[in-house]
Amino acid sequence: MVINDVNDKDAIVKEYFDKGFVHIKTDPNTIEPELLKSIGSYFGKLLITGKHHIEGDRYVQLLSENALFGSGDVPWHNDFSYSIGDYHGTLLAYIESDTPTHTEFVDCNIAYNMLSEEDKTYLADAEATFGIPGKYDGLISETQVKVIKKHVMTRPIVMQHPVTKRTSLYFSPETLVSTNKPIDKERLVKHCESMSFKHHWEKGDMILWDNRRMLHRRDAFEGHRKLLRVNFQYEFKHKTS
Prior knowledge:
The chain is α+β, with helices and mostly antiparallel strands. It is built from six helices and 17 strands. Strands 1, 2, 3, 4, 5, 7, 15 and 17 form an eight-stranded mixed beta sheet that branches. Strands 6-16-8-14 form a four-stranded antiparallel beta sheet. The chain has a three-stranded antiparallel beta sheet with strand order 10-9-13, with no helix packed on it. The protein is globular. The model has no long low-confidence stretch (mean pLDDT 91).
């Protein structure tokens, strides 16, 4: 489903919680920071970033070859898995690129449902600790690094969604440091990859995804690529069918 009306809050919020992923299509000329912040605020509180934000606005991050993540590959992860607090969702808007580009996703609600009963039982009490990979030094501010090192984040691998109460896998392979019991990470990754899908970016595209539900990754690229991003935290109760 593609939503063409950026002001249709009810449709966007419903699709988000039903599917964990929303594709919004609009006039490319209207994709500005204020539009991103407006859509992100449908879900609650916008989150401030310490680095790689656009000039004069700490809510909107710039992703490009010279900014956040650079041009290298970015393996499977959940945004800010290593940070205290809750980075519940992400909005990413395509601005331009020299060559075709895509972002790949896995619905970990489905991935969990497709596990064997034996795996579900084994993972029921599993917990994972997350950290920032060394290759991402400089990704966040020095203050954030100090906070992360002081407050190490451990989260359940089988996570109940704070709004929908559905159960998903949550193990952010790229930022996973350790677990409280042996976990075959590569087998879990292959299981998730068997049901992945790619979004091929086009002018006018904005993508919303539930960071508690969706894994995502992207390939390395050459040349110029520019996207804008906002992260948000739920501040309301939402009942889904």
